[in-house]
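Aim 2 progress update. The chain analyzed this quarter is reproduced below.
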Amino acid sequence: MKGINILHMKYDNKNAARCVDDIDHCVYASILESIDDDINRIRLAAQWLIKRNSTLYIQNNSDNLRNYVILDEEIESLLSSPDGFSTASPDRSDNDGTLALLQQYNDLCAQIDAKKRITAQTGPELPGMKLARLFRLTPFEEICLAVCCAPELDKRYERLYAYLHDDLTLKHPTPGLIMDLFCHTPQERVDARQAFAASAPLLQYGLLIVGDPPQGSASRLLSCPLSLDRRVADHLLGLSGIDDRLARFVRLEDAVVELGLVTLSEEACDRLRGFARQHLERFDETDRHVVLHFHGTYGTGRKSVARAICHDLGRPLLLADAEQLLDGPIPFAEAALILAREAALQSAVLCLEQVDSLVHDEANARRLRLLAKILGDLVPLTILIGSKPWQPRGMFGDHLFLGIDFPLPDDSARQRLWEQARINGTGRVEGVDFGTLAGTFRFSPGQIRDATRAAGHLAAWQQGENAQRVTAAELYAACRDQSNQKLSALAHKIEPAYGWDDIVLPADHMDQLRELCNQARYRHVVYGSWGFGRKLSTGKGLNVLFSGPPGTGKTMGAEVIAHELGLDLYKIDLSQVVSKYIGETEKNLDRIFSEARTCNAILFFDEADALFGKRSEVKDAHDRYANIEIGYLLQKMEEYEGVAILATNFRSNLDEAFVRRLQYVVEFPLPPLAERRRIWEKVWPDAAPLDAGLDPEFLAQRFEIAGGNIRNIALAAAFMAADEEGDITMQHLLRATRREFQKMGKIVSEGDFGTV
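Predicted C-alpha cells:
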C-alpha cells in the first residue's frame, strides 16, 4: 500500500510560524481555509505515525499472510516501550525525521488554535466552530470530526485510513486510529476514550455514527469504524439545507411580522415578544431555555406571534408537526434528536404544531420526557402549539415554561372582523347581518378570513368569474364548510330538510322553538353589546331538552332549528357513546365536545335515556360512575357555547335537578285530532299523484298515531301505488297503516279500518 500521494503534499511550516508570531492578522477567511488546515493536521499526524512505527509495517506488500502472522519485530517494538504504549521517546534521535514532523505538527496546531480564537472574536462563526460551541466539544472531539470529514472531500483518505489500519477493509477511521494519530502520552489516550462514551456529545447527539467492530476484534471500542452523520457532514462543509429525514414534516421559514389576525391584545403581544427577546439575549449567561405553550383554536394567531418573536430575534422559524413526529417512519427518539439538532444548527426557534396528542396522552408520557430533555439540551427557545391548556409539572426542570391562551374573539370583535373582511374579487356582500353571523358562527379571525375567501370562490363558481356580489346563502355555505370535519367521525351529520311549514306542534310549543332560535340569533346583542356575557362564566350556549314519545317530531324540530339558523346538525346516539368501561364514556364525550367547539354545529343527543335515568342512591361503583358521567355531560353542555339538544322518550325518568339546569324544555306530545289531520295534509310532496278520494279527516279520527308513523304510512303507500303505476288511494293508505300497526306491535282488527 505504498504511494499514498496525499502524505507528501507540501506543508508550509514558515507560514505556520509567521501566523503564531503575528496572530492579529490570522483569521479564517472561508470554510475551505479552515478545512484545509484540519486536513494538513491529519496529514502530518499520519506521516508522523508511520515514521514512528515504521518497524511495525511490512516492507514487502506481497506478503498475504500479514494478518495471520505475529512478527518478532512487532513484539520487540511493543516490549521496548517503557510505558507499554507505542509512543515516541523524548530523547530519540531524529535520524528518520520524526521529531521534525512532530514540531511541524505542533506549530500547525498552534496556528489553528490562534486563527480560531481570532476568528471567533472578529469574523463570522465558521460551521466547525459553531458545532463545537453548540455541543460543547473538546478540542480532541473537534479533531475526531475533522478526521471523519476528510473522506467527505477526498475519497483517497479512505485508502489512507485502510493503510494506517493495515487492513484494506477498514476504510473508516476508528477510535484506536484517532488515538494513535493524536494522543502522544498514555494519559491522553485514557482521556480520549471519554470522547467515545455514549453520554459524550459525539455519540449522544448523533454527530458520529459508530459501526460494528471487525469480527474477532479484541477491543470493541477501539476497533469500531466511525463516520459522520450526513447532516453534520453537510453542516461542516457549509451546506445549510435541513436534514432530508425531516423534510416530510418540517419546514424552515424566514419570519415576518403579521399580527392582524391575532386574538391576543396588543399589550400582551408586546410583553410576550419582550420576554422572549430578553431571555434569549441573556442565554449565554443564564443557560436557561425557554418553552412557550400557545394554546387556542385554529386561526387565533398562534403561529403569527411565533413568527413575530423570531423576527425580533433575527432567527428563522423551524416548524414541525408533532403528530407526524409521533407516527412517522423514524423512531421517535431518533426523530426528536435530529429535529432538536436541526434547530440548533439552523440557529432557529423550534415550533412544534399539533402537540395535543403528545402532551395530553398518557401513553406518550415517556416520549414527552425524552423530548423535554433533548430540548433542554439543545434548543434555547421552543414554542409548542396546541388547542388545550397544559402544564408540564416540572418536566423542564429549572428552564422557563409559560402557557399562553389565545382566546376566541367575543361577539363584538367577531362582528368587526366580519365587517372588515374583504371578499376577494367579488365586490359587496348582500343580505347579511354581520352581527347575527358573528353570533351564529363562533369563528376565529383565521376562520373568518378563510370563510370570506371560500365565499368568493363559491360566488365565482355559481355566478361566473365576473361575480360582483356574494349572497347570504353563499357566505353561510362557506361558513359551514369551515367547520371542523372531524366531528363526522364521532357523530352523524344530518342535512336539514324541514322548515317551519313542515312541523306540526301546539302553538305554544312552536313559540318555544322560535324563541330558542331567536336566542341563538341575537346572542351577539345580549352577550356582546348589552354586556351580559361579562356576567356569565358559563352557560352562554343553549341547552335544550326535547321530550316526547317516539315519532312526535323531536328530530324534525332539531332540523327546523338548524335550517333556520343556517348551522350544521350532528346527531349523536348516546346509547353508542355510553361505555361499560369506567371512564370511557367521559373520554367519548370529551372528544365530541372538543371537536364541536370548532365545528359551530348543533349537537343533537338522541337516546338520552341511555344515560339519563332517575339518579338513585349509590349502591356500587357503577352507580357512582353513572352519576359521574351525567355530571360530566352537564358540565360539558354548560361550557359549550353552541346549541346542544337532548332527546328523551320519557321525561319522567329524568332527575329534576338535571332538568333545572337546562334553559329550554320542549314537549313533543302525541298529536290530537286537529294536528293529526294537518299532518296527513302536509305529509305529501307537491308532485305526489293523490287520488281525489283521500280522506285526511277519516285517517286522523280513526288512527291515534304520531307524526312519524303517519310519515312512514304515507311513504309505504306511495311505493304501493308506484308498483301499481297508479295514484295513491285510500286502499294503499289502509294497507300501509296495517303494516305500520303490525310493526308497532299493535293488534290489528278489521273494524279499526272501517269501510272505504
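The first helix runs from residue 13 to 21. The mean pLDDT is 83. These observations will guide the mutagenesis experiments scheduled for the next reporting period.
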